[in-house]
Design brief:
Elements lengths: L3 H7 L10 H14 L2 E2 L19 H10 L6 H14 L3 E9 L12 E8 L2 E5 L12 E2 L5 E3 L2 E8 L2 E7 L6 E6 L12 H11 L7 E6 L2 E6 L2 E6 L2 E6 L3 H12 L6
Antiparallel strand pairs: 1-10, 2-3, 2-9, 3-4, 4-5, 6-7, 7-8, 8-9, 10-11, 11-12, 12-13
Length: 260
């Protein structure tokens, strides 16, 4: 059963903290450091994807992610994080996005889900379930450049759509994902699973294991055998052809924090 106190302990936070920007930053960063993205256990016991990716059992998801410490995908992680923020008194909305692919195209609009928080008249992007390197701390919905741990982020807006852009020390500006600032309801994902599976097949991502965890100054990401390390804004991409090395990296990303 969902338990705010248990969740806060998993995140290493005493509670219940007051709903402000400092709290949001701490919860967001700790979430990324302590709970990895891991699509290999969704659905947890294998089989077909659920008919509605966003309409998940909160108690079962809480038991998997928080109690047993198993990583999850954006639909699981954002579901729980939004509930936590709501319980703490934040004003939130669930938002969907299309993720930028290698060739500059975007995935279907409903393929990613994250949380937007309204604080003191400003919107803050809170995304604890992204499968690749992104922002460790909440991002203000603003065209202003926002440095974080060697990378820089900003949000460009045009014709009602917003695009999160990221620049590292070794790359130029690259889109992360684009979205509309529209509150999404779980029912909007009815019938989307089939289109999502077709997208995965066409993008050669079907059955590909994707793992990602934040570290103190960046992210470590594993997509198939491609291993991307981003630390202090420097990026290093390698191919893990040795099975033993692959397993070592996978364990490193999945590891419980602080020996838990």
């Amino acid at each position: 059963m969902f338990d705010t106190a248990v969740y806060l302990r998993r995140l290493g936070c005493a509670g219940p903290p007051a709903p402000g920007l400092d709290t949001l930053v701490r919860l967001h960063r700790n979430h990324l450091l302590r709970i990895p993205y891991d699509n290999s256990r969704f659905p947890e016991h294998g089989g077909a994807l659920p008919d509605n990716l966003a309409d998940l059992d909160q108690d079962a998801t809480f038991d998997k992610i928080v109690v047993r410490g198993i990583g999850g995908i954006c639909f699981e992680l954002s579901l729980l994080f939004q509930r936590l923020l709501d319980e703490l008194g934040f004003e939130t909305m669930a938002v969907s996005a299309g993720v930028c692919q290698d060739r500059g195209q975007f995935s279907p609009e409903l393929s990613h889900k994250f949380v937007v928080v309204r604080l003191d008249g400003r919107h803050w992007l809170a995304d604890v379930g992204f499968s690749g390197p992104s922002y460790l701390e909440p991002l203000c919905l603003s065209p202003e450049e926002q440095p974080q741990y060697g990378c820089v982020f900003k949000v460009d807006s045009q014709d009602g759509r917003h695009t999160v852009l990221r620049r590292s020390r070794t790359t130029g500006w690259r889109p992360v994902y684009r979205f509309a600032l529209v509150a999404r309801k779980p029912a909007e994902w009815d019938g989307f699973t089939e289109a999502f599976e077709q997208y995965l097949d066409e993008s050669v991502l079907a059955s590909t294991t994707m793992l990602c965890r934040a570290v103190g100054n960046g992210h470590h990401m594993l997509v198939g055998k491609r291993y991307l390390v981003v630390e202090d804004g420097h990026e290093k991409l390698s191919a893990l052809t040795d099975p033993a090395e692959y397993e070592r990296v996978a364990r490193h990303i999945r590891r419980p924090p602080d020996g838990e």
